Amino acid sequence: MRKVVVTDSTFPTLEYEQAVALRHQGQFNAHQCRTSAEVTEAVKGAAAVFVQFAPLQEEAINGLAPGATIVRYGVGFDNVNVAAALAGGHRVCYVPDYCTDEVADHTVALLLAGLRKIPQLDASVRQGQWKAVAISAPLKPFDLSTIGFVGLGRIGRSVLHRIRNFGFDMVVSDPMMTDEQAVALNVRRVSTDELLTSSDAVLLHVPSTSQTRGMINRQSISSMRDGALIVNCSRGDLIDENDLAAALTAGKVRAALDVFGHEPLVETSPLRSAPNLILTPHAAWYSDRAIGRLQELASDEVDRGLSGKPARCPVPFTA
Q1: H or E element at residue 70
Q2: Sheet-wide strand order for 228-232
Q3: What is the pLDDT of residues 260-292, one digit of tens each?
Q4: Which parts of the chain fold into alpha helices (H)?
Q5: Global pTM?
Q6: pLDDT tens-digit series, residues 191-232
Q7: Pairwise CA distance, residues 43 & 71, whole Å
Q8: Catalytic site positions
Q9: Cβ of 106: how many Cβ atoms within 10 Å?
């Protein structure tokens, strides 16, 4: 009997996962692992593993059944040792498209609220003030503002389509984009350095890799326009949070963040008290529809693996 394991989850039920195990006459086990040691024990001999936030590292991977299927619930896969899994002959999948609309909507909401300084205006009214110009200034109109996309994949393009009618000038730094694609999307291709120096808002839409981790730091922030807005609904470790907190406090930049290097955001994080900042608790993915879609698509990958069918979304290992 093949073993199907959920290492950890935050979902109301696991009906999709249980159903796929039953379909293949498998043994189903659900855990709430937090440590590598707990994961290693839980997945021993598993033919299929669902993993949400728990670390799935080499020792655990070495204990899987031959040719196991690993599915990461979500868009990222930082907590899975993909190299070890592939070297061991296992299949690693993820679900990059379950919440594209939700993340794009959340990104746009943060962008517009940040550019129009909605949080500052709201706070001023609650404090008994009525000073629209004093609180808002300086405030560029949208048709004189430049939005820079660092990466323009599935979610980035969804954001671009949503904000096109606002009249922004839009620039993109993405090594995968061709000149022909840029023309078709009516955007300008620029280097990352040029994007940072010329943008009024910088939207991060890249995965966490050795090239992108910590890309927003003291040096890169110093090159940005004064008062520029940084929006991150991608991966928390793209930003050096201490450097960003210092820049926020100094008034150099503003930011709107949904993801963080450590989640939940630690109580001692300087971001908690930093000004000029909108914080949301890794909520961009969420809608009533998204949870079920995530579990259904993840379960479909396990079904494909146990049935010997090709994966729908194998991890493109580039990290």
Answers
A1: strand 69-72
A2: 188-189, 169-173, 146-150, 201-204, 228-232, 253-257, 277-279
A3: 999 899 999 999 999 999 999 999 999 999 999
A4: 15-23, 36-42, 58-62, 82-87, 100-115, 118-126, 132-136, 154-163, 179-185, 192-198, 218-222, 241-250, 288-307
A5: 0.90
A6: 999 999 999 999 999 988 899 999 999 999 999 999 999 999
A7: 13
A8: 235, 263, 282
A9: 23
